[in-house]
Amino acid sequence: MGKKSKEIANLDVDQLIEMLNAALAEEWLAYYQYWIGARLMEGPMRSEIQTELLVHATEELGHAELVVTRIIQLGGTPLLDPAMWAEKARCAYESPTDPYVENILLQNLSGERCAIQRYDEIAEFTRGKDHSTHQMAINILNDEIEHEDDIEGWLRDLERLKEDYAKLRV
């Protein structure tokens, strides 16, 4: 962090770096969860949802790039060992042992809701104190909110599909 940046930042930079390293771990786990889930997914609407989940995965990787850059700018060291991701992350990685599309979506929805909380906390911690990190957190938060909305929409569509199918069976 530059001299003037440190002068105007009125926060605990070490605590912020810890928060950002936790977010970094969560982004890598989210990337993999989206990526592997999309590859294994089975069930209705699979091809449409799979394509979008791979887009979400790419966006999570982009978030990781933003976060690691900010950690370095703040004078910190990003997590260097992937083994630490699960240890540092509050947002859990859920193995897609049941590849049914609805289960994959529910796992990703849980991750998005956790990410929303994480970036809201970072945004609040940096509000009016570290404008660069605050803006980054807000931008990522907006992406995570959009991901949550996408997943909730697909789940509603699947529910409607099940209802329509049940009507046909009667």
Helix content bin: over 70%
In terms of per-residue confidence, which ranges show pLDDT below 50 for 5 or more consecutive residues? none
Order of helices and strands: HHHHHH
Quaternary: single chain
Question: How many strands, what sense, and barrel or not for the largest sheet?
Answer: none
Distance between the termini: 66 Å
C-alpha-based Rg, rounded: 18 Å
- Anisotropy-based shape: elongated
SS field, number of helical segments: 6
DSSP strand content = under 5%
Task: Briefly note the structural class of the backbone.
Answer: mainly alpha
The total strand number stands at 0
Mean pLDDT: 94
Topology:
Elements: H1 3-8, H2 13-40, H3 46-73, H4 83-88, H5 101-126, H6 131-169
Verbal overview:
With 170 residues, this protein is mainly α. Helices cover 78% and strands 0% of the residues. The chain has helices at 3-8, 13-40, 46-73, 83-88, 101-126, 131-169. α2 (13-40) runs antiparallel to α5 and α5 (101-126) packs antiparallel against α6. The longest helix has 39 residues, at 131-169. The chain is elongated and about 70 Å long. The protein starts with a helix and ends with a helix.
What's this entry about, in short?
The chain is mainly alpha-helical and 170 residues long.
Keywords:
elongated; mainly alpha; 6 helices; 170 residues
